[in-house]
Design brief:
- This protein is an alpha/beta fold and 368 residues long.
- Helix content is 24%, strand content 23%.
- It has 10 helices and 19 strands.
- It has helices at 13-24, 40-43, 75-79, 86-99, 175-185, 213-224, 275-280, 319-322, 326-336, 343-351, and strands spanning 2-9, 30-33, 104-105, 110-116, 119-124, 127-136, 152-153, 167-171, 190-195, 228-233, 237-243, 246-251, 256-259, 264-265, 283-284, 287-288, 302-304, 310-311, 314-315.
- The strands form 5 sheets. Strands 1, 2, 3, 4, 5, 6 and 17 form a 7-stranded mixed beta sheet that branches. A 5-stranded parallel beta sheet has the order 7-14-8-9-10, covered by helices on one side. Strands 11-12-13 form a 3-stranded antiparallel beta sheet, with no helix packed on it.
- Strand 11 (237-243) and strand 12 form a beta hairpin.
- Helix 5 (175-185) packs parallel to helix 6 (213-224).
Length: 368
């Protein structure tokens, strides 16, 4: 059994970024445990999927690359790309992890976490590890929301270009649904999107709610090139059946959509299905309950980080959003250890828009 002051579960953008920040705050006794390889979830993205937030090397002006997970790195600089594929972003994370010499235990699944005598014991196939603090950075990509017996979830598609068919039905109305539609339309297929509601024309300026400008741009270009994409709003899918080579999607309003191609399920993800999350956090109505410090309401010194953190209207589902909490949480740990971080260090994070300590300022409001 090996003890560490801090253990981070997950070596994605949140896990790697948090580890770098902790080291910056002089908390050196950390371990990152990852069930696969560094950036595993990104490497599982469909081949056509890219980051919808643009990368640009603007670090010198107090605006780090939107996809960077530390102050002084930039995927745009490293790869000379604006919208990175999942595979490329996983490579970025690996490069950064090695650059900062982060202690990462790969291909190790945490099966259980036990809290006893103010210490957390993590059980894995490679042995047991203990820690004073736990950061859960497992994300949600490994937990697709698939409410139907039939249909291929968006996250299970390796390459949309390899899917065969003249017509496709997509269930869902947000980013992944439109990404799938645009990718499939390149093969000349007719696409029908069905959704309760869609982020396509949301008046809310927050990109966590509204369809991203990058997706809008791609959709406009696809339609201009003759893409056959139809969006149907107000359709709640109840069931998908399959018989004699035909898939039927049954909707609440009585309509039935038919397709020979298996429907694409783009209904998002459900992090509450994660066994680690279920063990360490209280869940109400499919929402993880957190304190204002992103801490578990069930156990002390257990924090949730990454895109699954929600606080009222603050949805931290983009890297540039959730990275702004790393330094705040690192400072909390320093204070709980009876130490004080240098003012200059905290100021450097503030100057780089990476120190969000007040969620009340997160409302996105654009006049035009």
């Amino acid at each position: 059994m090996t003890h560490h002051q801090v253990i981070i579960i997950g070596a994605g953008a949140a896990g790697i970024g948090m580890a770098i920040t902790l080291k910056d705050f002089d908390m050196q006794d950390i371990l990152v445990i990852e069930k696969g390889s560094i950036g595993h979830s990104f490497s599982q993205w469909p081949k056509s999927t890219q980051t919808i937030t643009p990368s640009f090397t603007s670090n010198g002006f107090g605006m780090p690359d939107m996809n960077a997970i530390s102050k002084d790195t930039s995927p745009a600089f490293t790869f000379s790309e604006e919208h990175l594929s999942g595979k490329t972003y996983a490579e970025y994370l690996s490069l950064v992890a090695h650059h900062y010499n982060l202690p990462i235990l790969e291909n190790t699944m945490v099966s259980k976490v036990i809290y006893t005598e103010d210490i957390y014991k993590l059980e894995t196939a490679k042995g047991e590890y203990t820690a004073d603090y736990i950061f859960v950075a497992t994300g949600d990509f490994s937990f697709p929301d698939q409410p139907f017996k039939y249909g291929t979830h968006y996250s299970k598609v390796d390459d949309f270009a390899e899917l065969k068919g003249d017509t496709f039905t997509i269930i869902g109305g947000n980013e992944s649904a439109f990404d799938a539609a645009i990718s499939l339309s390149k093969q000349g297929a007719s696409i029908s999107i069905y959704a309760d509601s869609t982020a396509l024309k949301k008046p809310n300026a927050d990109p966590s709610v509204r369809l991203s400008s990058y997706t809008h741009q791609r959709l406009k270009y696809a339609l201009k090139q003759g893409a056959k994409i139809q969006v149907n709003v107000g359709y709640h899918a109840d069931e998908i059946t399959y018989k004699d080579g035909l898939y039927k999607v049954h909707f609440e309003n009585g309509y039935i959509a038919q397709s020979k191609s298996e429907p694409i399920i783009a209904t998002g993800f459900d992090v509450t299905k994660n066994p680690i999350v279920q063990q360490l956090f209280e869940i109400r109505q499919q929402e993880i309950q957190l304190t204002e410090l992103d801490e578990s309401t069930r156990f002390p010194n257990v924090f949730l980080i990454g895109a699954t953190v929600h606080h009222n209207n603050a949805v931290l589902c983009y890297i540039y959003k959730f990275r702004s909490r790393f330094a705040v949480l690192a400072n909390i740990l320093i204070e709980r250890e009876g130490r004080k971080a240098k003012d200059s260090l905290i100021e450097s994070y503030r100057n780089n828009s990476m120190y969000l300590d007040d969620y009340s300022c997160c409302e996105v409001d654009c006049s035009c």
